[in-house]
Design brief:
Bound molecules: adenosine-5'-triphosphate
Number of domains: 2
Organism: Desulfonatronospira thiodismutans ASO3-1
Function: Part of the ABC transporter complex HmuTUV involved in hemin import. Responsible for energy coupling to the transport system.
Number of strands: 12
Keywords: ATP-binding, Nucleotide-binding, Translocase, Transport
Strand order of the largest sheet: 6-7-8-3-9-10
CATH architecture of the largest domain: 3-Layer(aba) Sandwich
Radius of gyration: 19 Å
CATH topology of the largest domain: Rossmann fold
GO molecular function: ATP binding; ATP hydrolysis activity
Strand content: 25-35%
Helix content: 25-40%
CATH superfamily of the largest domain: P-loop containing nucleotide triphosphate hydrolases
Pfam families: ABC_tran
Length: 263
Protein backbone atom coordinates (compact mmCIF):
# COMPACT_ATOMS: atom_id res chain seq x y z
CA UNK A 1 0.00 0.00 0.00
CA UNK A 2 1.27 3.46 -0.87
CA UNK A 3 1.33 5.91 2.01
CA UNK A 4 0.31 8.66 -0.40
CA UNK A 5 -1.53 8.11 -3.65
CA UNK A 6 -2.67 10.98 -5.82
CA UNK A 7 -4.42 9.81 -8.97
CA UNK A 8 -5.33 11.97 -11.95
CA UNK A 9 -5.94 15.11 -9.93
CA UNK A 10 -7.06 18.34 -11.57
CA UNK A 11 -7.75 21.61 -9.78
CA UNK A 12 -8.95 25.02 -10.98
CA UNK A 13 -9.40 28.37 -9.36
CA UNK A 14 -11.28 31.35 -10.77
CA UNK A 15 -11.67 29.52 -14.08
CA UNK A 16 -7.91 28.92 -14.35
CA UNK A 17 -6.41 25.43 -14.54
CA UNK A 18 -3.85 25.21 -11.75
CA UNK A 19 -3.20 21.45 -11.79
CA UNK A 20 -4.06 19.09 -14.62
CA UNK A 21 -4.11 15.31 -14.37
CA UNK A 22 -1.39 14.95 -11.74
CA UNK A 23 -0.55 11.53 -10.33
CA UNK A 24 1.99 10.95 -7.58
CA UNK A 25 2.74 8.14 -5.15
CA UNK A 26 4.98 7.78 -2.14
CA UNK A 27 5.62 4.52 -0.35
CA UNK A 28 6.27 4.05 3.34
CA UNK A 29 9.68 5.50 4.22
CA UNK A 30 10.08 7.16 0.85
CA UNK A 31 11.48 10.66 0.34
CA UNK A 32 9.83 12.54 -2.51
CA UNK A 33 10.73 16.04 -3.72
CA UNK A 34 8.29 18.20 -5.71
CA UNK A 35 10.15 20.76 -7.80
CA UNK A 36 9.29 23.24 -10.54
CA UNK A 37 9.19 26.96 -11.38
CA UNK A 38 7.28 29.60 -9.42
CA UNK A 39 3.55 29.23 -9.93
CA UNK A 40 3.84 25.64 -11.27
CA UNK A 41 1.34 24.37 -8.69
CA UNK A 42 3.62 22.77 -6.09
CA UNK A 43 2.03 24.37 -3.02
CA UNK A 44 -1.43 23.66 -4.41
CA UNK A 45 -0.55 19.98 -4.82
CA UNK A 46 0.75 19.81 -1.25
CA UNK A 47 -2.44 21.50 0.02
CA UNK A 48 -4.53 18.91 -1.86
CA UNK A 49 -2.46 16.15 -0.23
CA UNK A 50 -3.07 17.79 3.15
CA UNK A 51 -6.84 17.88 2.56
CA UNK A 52 -6.90 21.70 2.61
CA UNK A 53 -8.23 21.83 -0.95
CA UNK A 54 -10.51 19.41 -2.78
CA UNK A 55 -9.70 18.35 -6.35
CA UNK A 56 -12.20 19.01 -9.16
CA UNK A 57 -11.49 15.49 -10.38
CA UNK A 58 -9.19 12.64 -9.39
CA UNK A 59 -8.52 11.20 -6.00
CA UNK A 60 -6.18 11.86 -3.05
CA UNK A 61 -5.54 8.94 -0.70
CA UNK A 62 -3.48 8.81 2.46
CA UNK A 63 -2.59 5.46 4.03
CA UNK A 64 -5.15 3.69 1.87
CA UNK A 65 -8.09 6.00 2.63
CA UNK A 66 -9.54 8.96 0.75
CA UNK A 67 -8.37 12.14 2.45
CA UNK A 68 -11.98 13.37 2.47
CA UNK A 69 -13.03 10.38 4.63
CA UNK A 70 -10.88 11.43 7.63
CA UNK A 71 -11.97 13.70 10.45
CA UNK A 72 -9.49 16.59 10.94
CA UNK A 73 -8.29 15.00 14.16
CA UNK A 74 -7.80 11.51 12.69
CA UNK A 75 -5.94 13.06 9.79
CA UNK A 76 -3.65 15.14 12.00
CA UNK A 77 -2.65 12.02 13.95
CA UNK A 78 -1.24 10.57 10.70
CA UNK A 79 -0.23 13.52 8.51
CA UNK A 80 1.66 16.71 9.38
CA UNK A 81 2.07 19.77 7.17
CA UNK A 82 4.77 22.42 7.50
CA UNK A 83 3.46 25.31 5.38
CA UNK A 84 5.63 27.71 3.38
CA UNK A 85 4.51 30.70 5.39
CA UNK A 86 4.14 29.99 9.05
CA UNK A 87 1.53 32.06 10.93
CA UNK A 88 3.03 34.94 12.86
CA UNK A 89 -0.06 36.08 14.68
CA UNK A 90 -0.21 33.04 16.96
CA UNK A 91 0.28 34.40 20.48
CA UNK A 92 2.23 31.32 21.56
CA UNK A 93 5.67 30.69 22.88
CA UNK A 94 8.02 28.23 21.16
CA UNK A 95 7.59 25.34 23.63
CA UNK A 96 3.77 25.69 23.57
CA UNK A 97 3.76 25.73 19.76
CA UNK A 98 5.83 22.55 19.53
CA UNK A 99 3.72 20.82 22.19
CA UNK A 100 0.61 21.60 20.11
CA UNK A 101 1.89 18.88 17.79
CA UNK A 102 0.68 16.37 20.40
CA UNK A 103 -2.98 17.55 20.34
CA UNK A 104 -4.25 15.06 17.73
CA UNK A 105 -2.96 12.21 19.93
CA UNK A 106 -4.70 13.36 23.11
CA UNK A 107 -8.24 12.66 24.23
CA UNK A 108 -10.78 15.46 24.06
CA UNK A 109 -10.12 16.85 27.55
CA UNK A 110 -6.75 15.19 28.08
CA UNK A 111 -3.77 17.37 29.06
CA UNK A 112 -0.28 16.72 27.73
CA UNK A 113 1.67 14.30 29.90
CA UNK A 114 5.35 13.74 30.64
CA UNK A 115 5.83 11.67 27.47
CA UNK A 116 4.36 14.48 25.35
CA UNK A 117 6.65 17.04 26.98
CA UNK A 118 9.65 14.75 26.39
CA UNK A 119 8.75 14.42 22.70
CA UNK A 120 8.41 18.20 22.40
CA UNK A 121 11.79 18.71 24.08
CA UNK A 122 13.41 16.16 21.80
CA UNK A 123 11.90 17.79 18.70
CA UNK A 124 13.15 21.21 19.87
CA UNK A 125 16.62 19.74 20.46
CA UNK A 126 16.62 18.12 17.02
CA UNK A 127 15.79 21.47 15.44
CA UNK A 128 18.21 23.41 17.67
CA UNK A 129 15.50 25.66 19.11
CA UNK A 130 15.37 24.44 22.73
CA UNK A 131 17.18 27.60 23.89
CA UNK A 132 14.24 29.59 22.46
CA UNK A 133 11.58 27.57 24.34
CA UNK A 134 10.28 30.55 26.34
CA UNK A 135 10.44 33.05 23.47
CA UNK A 136 7.32 34.25 21.60
CA UNK A 137 6.99 33.31 17.91
CA UNK A 138 6.92 36.94 16.78
CA UNK A 139 10.28 37.47 18.49
CA UNK A 140 12.14 34.95 16.32
CA UNK A 141 14.08 35.25 13.07
CA UNK A 142 12.52 33.72 9.93
CA UNK A 143 14.81 30.69 10.02
CA UNK A 144 14.24 30.12 13.75
CA UNK A 145 10.47 30.26 13.22
CA UNK A 146 10.70 27.80 10.35
CA UNK A 147 12.66 25.38 12.57
CA UNK A 148 10.02 25.70 15.32
CA UNK A 149 7.26 24.67 12.91
CA UNK A 150 9.31 21.71 11.66
CA UNK A 151 9.82 20.73 15.34
CA UNK A 152 6.04 20.89 15.87
CA UNK A 153 5.48 18.59 12.89
CA UNK A 154 8.09 16.11 14.18
CA UNK A 155 6.50 16.20 17.63
CA UNK A 156 3.23 15.22 15.93
CA UNK A 157 4.89 11.86 15.03
CA UNK A 158 3.13 11.63 11.67
CA UNK A 159 3.38 8.72 9.25
CA UNK A 160 3.37 11.21 6.38
CA UNK A 161 5.22 14.52 6.59
CA UNK A 162 4.45 17.24 4.03
CA UNK A 163 6.81 20.21 3.91
CA UNK A 164 6.63 23.33 1.74
CA UNK A 165 10.12 24.72 1.14
CA UNK A 166 11.36 23.76 4.62
CA UNK A 167 14.93 24.93 3.99
CA UNK A 168 14.09 28.23 2.27
CA UNK A 169 15.09 30.57 5.13
CA UNK A 170 17.87 28.42 6.52
CA UNK A 171 21.65 28.74 6.46
CA UNK A 172 23.67 25.84 4.92
CA UNK A 173 24.34 24.13 8.26
CA UNK A 174 20.66 24.11 9.20
CA UNK A 175 19.65 23.08 5.67
CA UNK A 176 21.81 19.98 5.82
CA UNK A 177 20.86 19.33 9.45
CA UNK A 178 17.16 19.30 8.62
CA UNK A 179 17.59 17.21 5.50
CA UNK A 180 19.64 14.66 7.48
CA UNK A 181 16.89 14.55 10.08
CA UNK A 182 14.16 14.09 7.46
CA UNK A 183 16.18 11.30 5.86
CA UNK A 184 16.53 9.66 9.28
CA UNK A 185 12.74 9.79 9.78
CA UNK A 186 12.28 8.03 6.42
CA UNK A 187 14.94 5.38 6.84
CA UNK A 188 14.62 4.61 10.56
CA UNK A 189 10.95 5.24 11.27
CA UNK A 190 9.35 4.60 7.88
CA UNK A 191 7.87 8.11 7.68
CA UNK A 192 7.00 9.18 4.12
CA UNK A 193 8.35 12.64 3.42
CA UNK A 194 7.04 14.84 0.63
CA UNK A 195 8.88 18.10 0.29
CA UNK A 196 8.43 21.04 -2.06
CA UNK A 197 11.79 22.65 -2.73
CA UNK A 198 13.67 25.07 -4.95
CA UNK A 199 16.98 23.76 -3.55
CA UNK A 200 17.42 21.30 -6.39
CA UNK A 201 20.98 20.25 -5.54
CA UNK A 202 20.13 19.62 -1.92
CA UNK A 203 16.96 17.73 -2.86
CA UNK A 204 18.92 15.60 -5.35
CA UNK A 205 21.19 14.35 -2.56
CA UNK A 206 18.29 13.11 -0.42
CA UNK A 207 15.19 12.40 -2.51
CA UNK A 208 14.44 8.88 -3.70
CA UNK A 209 12.24 10.34 -6.40
CA UNK A 210 11.29 13.72 -7.80
CA UNK A 211 8.20 15.17 -9.42
CA UNK A 212 8.86 18.12 -11.72
CA UNK A 213 5.80 20.30 -12.24
CA UNK A 214 5.56 22.91 -14.96
CA UNK A 215 2.46 25.06 -15.54
CA UNK A 216 0.29 22.67 -13.59
CA UNK A 217 1.37 19.58 -15.46
CA UNK A 218 3.85 16.78 -14.84
CA UNK A 219 7.04 17.61 -16.76
CA UNK A 220 9.11 14.78 -15.33
CA UNK A 221 9.08 12.10 -12.67
CA UNK A 222 11.58 9.52 -11.46
CA UNK A 223 14.92 9.30 -9.67
CA UNK A 224 16.89 12.59 -9.42
CA UNK A 225 19.13 11.61 -12.38
CA UNK A 226 16.03 11.04 -14.52
CA UNK A 227 14.42 14.37 -13.68
CA UNK A 228 17.37 16.73 -13.27
CA UNK A 229 18.45 16.58 -16.90
CA UNK A 230 19.51 19.66 -18.81
CA UNK A 231 16.75 19.18 -21.35
CA UNK A 232 13.89 18.88 -18.82
CA UNK A 233 15.18 21.68 -16.58
CA UNK A 234 15.82 24.17 -19.39
CA UNK A 235 12.40 23.49 -20.87
CA UNK A 236 10.62 23.85 -17.54
CA UNK A 237 12.53 26.79 -16.05
CA UNK A 238 13.12 28.64 -19.33
CA UNK A 239 16.77 29.46 -18.76
CA UNK A 240 20.15 27.93 -19.55
CA UNK A 241 21.08 25.28 -17.01
CA UNK A 242 24.27 23.27 -16.72
CA UNK A 243 24.02 19.79 -15.25
CA UNK A 244 26.98 17.70 -14.15
CA UNK A 245 27.65 15.10 -11.47
CA UNK A 246 27.82 16.12 -7.85
CA UNK A 247 31.41 15.43 -6.71
CA UNK A 248 30.02 14.04 -3.43
CA UNK A 249 28.23 11.15 -5.08
CA UNK A 250 26.42 9.82 -8.07
CA UNK A 251 23.65 12.40 -8.15
CA UNK A 252 23.20 15.26 -10.60
CA UNK A 253 24.16 18.83 -9.78
CA UNK A 254 22.65 21.79 -11.61
CA UNK A 255 23.67 25.37 -12.07
CA UNK A 256 21.73 28.14 -13.82
CA UNK A 257 24.01 29.84 -16.33
CA UNK A 258 24.08 33.66 -16.19
CA UNK A 259 23.62 35.39 -19.53
CA UNK A 260 27.06 37.06 -19.31
CA UNK A 261 28.66 33.61 -19.67
CA UNK A 262 27.36 33.49 -23.24
CA UNK A 263 25.06 31.21 -25.13
N1 LIG B 1 -6.14 31.79 -4.18
C1 LIG B 1 -5.78 31.73 -5.45
N2 LIG B 1 -6.61 32.20 -6.43
C2 LIG B 1 -6.26 32.14 -7.74
N3 LIG B 1 -5.10 31.61 -8.17
C3 LIG B 1 -4.25 31.13 -7.25
C4 LIG B 1 -4.53 31.15 -5.84
N4 LIG B 1 -3.50 30.59 -5.18
C5 LIG B 1 -2.59 30.26 -6.12
N5 LIG B 1 -3.03 30.59 -7.36
C6 LIG B 1 -2.33 30.38 -8.63
O1 LIG B 1 -2.10 29.00 -8.79
C7 LIG B 1 -0.85 28.78 -9.44
C8 LIG B 1 -0.03 27.79 -8.62
O2 LIG B 1 0.30 28.38 -7.36
P1 LIG B 1 1.21 27.59 -6.30
O3 LIG B 1 1.31 28.45 -5.10
O4 LIG B 1 0.67 26.22 -6.15
O5 LIG B 1 2.59 27.54 -7.08
P2 LIG B 1 4.03 27.07 -6.59
O6 LIG B 1 4.53 26.11 -7.62
O7 LIG B 1 3.98 26.58 -5.20
O8 LIG B 1 4.87 28.43 -6.68
P3 LIG B 1 6.12 29.03 -5.84
O9 LIG B 1 7.34 28.26 -6.30
O10 LIG B 1 6.16 30.45 -6.32
O11 LIG B 1 5.83 28.90 -4.38
C9 LIG B 1 -0.20 30.16 -9.61
O12 LIG B 1 -0.40 30.58 -10.92
C10 LIG B 1 -0.96 31.03 -8.63
O13 LIG B 1 -1.01 32.36 -9.10
Amino acid sequence: MNAVKISGVSFSRAGQHILQDISMEAGEGEFLAIIGPNGAGKTTLLRLAAGLEQPDSGCVQMLGRAVSSYTRREFAAQVALVPQEVPLEMPFKVAETVLLGRSPHLGLWEMEGEKDRQLALQAMQNMGVEHLAGRRLDQLSGGERQRVFIARAICQQPRVLLLDEPTASLDPAHQVGIMDLLEGLCREQGVSVIMVSHELNLAAMYADRMLLLSRGRTAGTGAPHEVLTRELLEKSYGCRIMVDENPLGKVPRMMPVPEKYGK
